[in-house]
Amino acid sequence: MNSQWVLPASATLPIAKKSALMGAGLTALVTFSFGLLSEQAEAAKSAGCDGGGFSVLLPGGTVSGVPETVVPAGSVGTSFLVQGKFVEFEVDAATLGIRNYTLTGAPNPQDMTGGVLTTIFSSKAPDHRGLVLNGDLTVSLDGQDILIERSGTGLGMKIQAKDCAQGGIFQMEPSRADGSTTDITHVLAPGVFYFDNPNFRNVSLPLCTPPNFTPSCAPVPVTPRVNFANDLSANFVGRDSPQVATRISQFGGLTVWRVASGGRMGGVLGEDAVEVAPPATNCIKNCQAQNRVRGKFPVLGFPFPVPDASRLAPRLP
User: Fold this and answer.
1) Bridge-partner residues for 254, per DSSP?
2) Residue 305, preceding bond cis, omega within 30 degrees?
3) Global pTM value
């Protein structure tokens, strides 16, 4: 349970970390479900996480290499950095909102960035409506996974994240004693935009034929899909992944989600973001970031560059 407080005062952070650590809110980590794939497909997916693992850079030092650490409330500070090989983001200690969610571009066979440091979200900010997280901070580390939890009077938050080049690698879960909802605002980074994926509207049936299939392909209804992408990489694509959450408003660079107490807002990157699959189950306890079986549903992809007509506008309200 003892953390490694090894961050010297002279330590130098990478360029992407030198901004003020002003995050929006941090939540708990739950187990990710990798589904039932063939050994070959599973190995390909796992390759996206090779060498991954997080450290947490707090004002008093670094938490790394231990299964669980409880950081006393007085040592948490106002913000901190979560640093992985493939993913990094800043966290606001009082809300567990996040800022500057970034893919590092580290070499990996599943890399979507072309080796370029790519910030995806400027912020994911929960509105706790006057409540504050001010208790001890619990950090759990397990291989490529991290779980961060903090509570306050009438409020709890969890963040789970996975240090991988793509996949279902982020989830935020609020809980309130009064059982009410929490609005979470996603603001995309400059150069990243939401779009109505035309591949999910102009569908050629049947889907379980090449190239949109796997040996166990299961046809499911195709519904409209909003993804996000950029103009720099033909492989970069993602989507917001709600569970017991309702989209309140959406623009080209901003979405507001209303999340049930115990529900979650996840993030999915890469092939999983353009796969046809059933929606997440109506789960508000011990939910998984990928609440489905991977590898058996058709993958429809997305057009690159994304046509202007498919991009949501205006960018901001």
Assistant:
1) 187
2) yes
3) 0.81
